[in-house]
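Memo to structure team: turn this sequence into structure tokens by end of day. - J.P.
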Amino acid sequence: MSNPLDTDAGSELFSSYEAELKLVRADLNQKLDQIAELSGEPRKSAVRLAERTLDEANELLGQMRIEKQNIPSATRSRINQRFRNHESDIDASKRQLKTLSSDRKALFGNRYSDNPDGSADQQLEQRQQLLSGTERLDRSSQRLRDSQRIANETEGIGRDTLADLQLQRETIQHTRMNMLESEGYVDRSVKTLRGMARR
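Reply from structure team:
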């Protein structure tokens, strides 16, 4: 039996959106039922599909909200009631999807379940300790690299200093040899002058 409102002036487009929404809602309900039976990655994929279907339903509700403003006031009250019913159904599906998607144990396995014995907190503490240990190791490695760099720089400075000292030693030795040679010249000159004085 056809809906009598379908023949009301201005309600044809609203009824079209409404019929499409009913199909989307049926698809959404089927997806929600499937999610309850899944776990792990299949469950997460099903949740994403249900979220997209829910978005589609909300878009149709938005179109219906706009279109019902164009319906004559004589029949708008009945249209508003139908719209509120659809809106309430979609809100219920949204809450159900939120509940299903917040079940961490079903989505991620026992590692992320809220266990009353505190094992989740213990695992979190272990992960934090592991991260802390990794950070300490990184800092120690960085200090070793800095120490190696400083050692290499010091070694280079030492080599340069030794080279300078060697050059200075050679210069001093050369200067000393020149002084000794000059002293020899002086001694010979003195002897020559003394010999000339005796004559």
